[in-house]
Design a protein that fits this description.
Strand content: 15-25%
Distance between the termini: 48 Å
Radius of gyration: 19 Å
CATH superfamily of the largest domain: NAD(P)-binding Rossmann-like Domain
Number of helices: 7
Number of domains: 2
Helix content: 25-40%
CATH architecture of the largest domain: 3-Layer(aba) Sandwich
Largest sheet: 7 strands, parallel
CATH topology of the largest domain: Rossmann fold
Length: about 210
């Protein structure tokens, strides 16, 4: 039986700043790239997105389904979702329970997309087969800090680290030469635009 990979995305053409003003566009393309990589293994790839790209999906043999169908059908689920009020704890006790038994979850997006307590319960019961995360719900003050000489005070993270089927990295996925070069380039260009009264690069802000 062919494994089913799922890519859960949440594209938004515009979104709201903290002051309530609309800003954008803000488009997250990494989920599509991941889907194409998964597809290259000859697997069926399902996708869920609030704004589906139907032409892209047809070109790459990827099928859009609703969220519940994606959760119930997939052997591996990869999250590519920004943290918004409506995506906080996207994976919770209810949605985790609606997944296939033995499913593997990949989260390289934002830690708060997953309810950690519910994830631990699902791992303990054996309902979740494994998890790979480059982010963690309460990572602030832990990731990017040298705590090697201290006792880790976060009990949930300590527990996750002891599961043999959980892999956690400390928000390292962006640490590539290309990504850091692009971050520096975009930031510098936006600072110069600010100084001259020009427009920021589309989809960015300072």
């Amino acid at each position: 039986m062919q494994d089913s990979f799922a890519v859960c995305e949440h594209h938004r053409v515009t979104h709201l700043a903290e002051n309530g003003e609309q800003r954008g566009p803000c488009v997250f393309l990494d989920g599509r790239i991941a889907a194409q990589i998964f597809r290259s293994f000859g697997t069926e790839v399902l996708a869920y997105d609030s704004l589906p790209a139907l032409d892209w999906a047809e070109a790459h043999g990827i099928r859009y389904v609703d969220r519940d169908a994606l959760l119930a059908s997939s052997d591996i689920i990869s999250l590519h979702v920004p943290l918004l009020p409506e995506t906080r704890h996207l994976l919770n006790a209810q949605t985790l329970g609606g997944m296939k038994r033995g499913v593997f979850i990949i989260n390289t997006s934002r830690g708060k997309l997953i309810d950690t307590g519910a994830l631990i319960a699902a791992l303990k019961s054996g309902h979740i087969g494994g998890v790979a995360m480059d982010v963690y719900e309460e990572e602030e003050g832990i990731f990017f800090e040298d705590l090697s000489g201290q006792v880790l005070q976060d009990d949930e993270l300590s527990l996750l680290l002891n599961f043999p089927n959980v892999l956690i990295t400390a928000h390292q996925a962006f640490l590539t030469r290309e990504a850091l070069k692009e971050i520096a380039s975009v930031t510098t260009r936006n600072i110069l635009q600010l100084e001259t009264g020009g427009n920021f690069i589309a989809g960015t802000r300072l």
